[in-house]
Amino acid sequence: GWKLSEITRAKMSSFQRGRKHPWQQGKPLTPEIKKKISDKRKLSNPGFEKLAREKTSCLERIVAAELDLRKIVYEQQFKVNRFFCDFFLPNSHLILECDGDYWHRRRAGAIERGLIRDEIITAHGFKIYHLAELLILDSVQLKQELDNLLGEGI
Fold first, then answer.
1. What is the model's pLDDT at position 69?
2. Which region holds residue 26: left if phi is over 0, alpha if psi is between -120 and 50, else beta?
3. How far apart are CA 42 and CA 32, in angstroms?
């Protein structure tokens, strides 16, 4: 595209100032309205959810390779409620989460969000086990951790 002049940008900004979007016409966003907005977004871009699930991190690829070596049955990007879990091991009803430092530790509020997410997932009857980034990147530690996990009959 092309760049707009400062004058044009100022005119557009002053025109939009104070205007509300159609869904903000003084009504609070109830759960029903939020769901309706979400459904419309999904309909307008049906491939979005599939695309989001197909992207895997390098940590997930490492864990997947280790699970494949052990011939462990798993489902990747398993949906529980509104959350996608990294791995689901159906034989043990276990969720494995690959926790990268940036997304799960360093970002503001990440730990609190993770705790809420874990509560919701465990309320659905799943066990959750978190694998930290440093553990995953150390192949010896990862193998030992999976041995311990799977050795416990999980």
1. 92
2. left
3. 15
